[in-house]
Design brief:
The chain is an alpha+beta fold. It is built from three helices and 13 strands, in the order ααββββββαβββββββ. It is globular, with a radius of gyration of 21 Å.
Length: 280
């Protein structure tokens, strides 16, 4: 009997070690992929071209007012921005808010990597990344950096991640320039709609500004990847509470993000504040 107990215990230990090994290999492969995407985004060719008001000729008044407010004259037209942010994240509609810190590399209408760490308990954390590059989106977060609790990929994730990239163009305003492929239409004096695209994915984003051109809201229809709404196009938006200037760019510095934006079903899941932003 004692011999059988030893055999069973040894088998259980072997299974546990094997499972841990599989999880660690998965984590190492994912981390390596994220590093490759970051390197690729950082190596996108830059430009020495500088912003001038002449670039806004022919744009709707609301769009021109916004771009002349958010990009200072003479500023080099950046291809990417690297951001450090912190705030609160809610991993589910009924879940508690948890604090997070994150770093992001965002290349306008090209791709992004968002690497975050969330403290879910006093001595327990989630870490991982959300990314999009060359048509492929991926989300993976692990408990204590080892046990995967979220690991998503596939066509719907690709479409949703592309949508995130496009609406986050408000963090790299050069993506909204017509010289970068943006197409503008006016809704009224304080609203304008801009069409952006990446890798065959397109989005019409409605932007709302105040009288001085500061961005107050950005809203689009984005693919939802939640269990009960996977593949649905639903209103998704960003509400801007504060803005700040970094390297000649005035961008949202404190904002809230949620699904079903502007409806009674609004599901807010992110409250963030940008600590630093470096454009290049």
């Amino acid at each position: 009997m004692n011999f059988m107990i030893v055999l069973i215990a040894a088998a259980l230990v072997g299974i546990a070690v094997s499972s841990l090994g599989v999880m660690l290999v998965g984590r190492f492969r994912f981390d390596a992929k994220i590093r490759r995407i970051k390197t690729a985004l950082r190596s996108e060719s830059g430009s020495e071209e500088r912003f001038s008001f002449e670039m806004l000729d022919g744009l709707p008044p609301a769009a021109s007012r916004y771009l002349s407010h958010t990009i200072r004259p003479g500023t080099v037209l950046a291809r990417r921005v690297e951001i450090e942010m912190s705030g609160q994240f809610r991993p589910g509609e009924k879940a508690d808010w948890v604090p997070f810190e994150a770093q992001q590399v965002l290349a306008g209408c090209t791709g992004f990597v968002w690497i975050a760490r969330m403290r879910v308990r006093r001595f327990m954390f989630l870490s991982g990344a959300d990314s999009y590059y060359r048509g492929e989106g991926r989300v993976r977060f692990s408990l204590m950096g080892i046990v995967p609790v979220a690991d998503a990929a596939g066509p719907d994730v690709d479409r949703s991640a592309a949508g995130r990239l496009l609406i986050e163009s408000c963090l790299i305003p050069t993506a909204f320039l017509p010289q970068r492929g943006a197409r503008w239409r006016t809704s009224d004096d304080k609203r304008a709609r801009v069409s952006l695209s990446v890798d065959g994915h397109s989005a019409n984003i409605t932007l709302r500004f105040n009288a001085g051109g500061s961005l107050k809201e950005a809203v689009m229809r984005r693919y939802h990847t939640g269990k009960d709404h996977e593949g649905e196009l639903v209103p998704f938006g960003v509400a801007v509470e504060e803005e700040r200037e970094f390297n000649g760019y005035v961008i949202p510095s404190r904002f809230r993000v949620g699904w079903w934006f502007g409806t009674e079903d609004y599901d807010e899941f992110l409250r963030a504040e940008i600590k630093s932003a470096r454009f290049y």
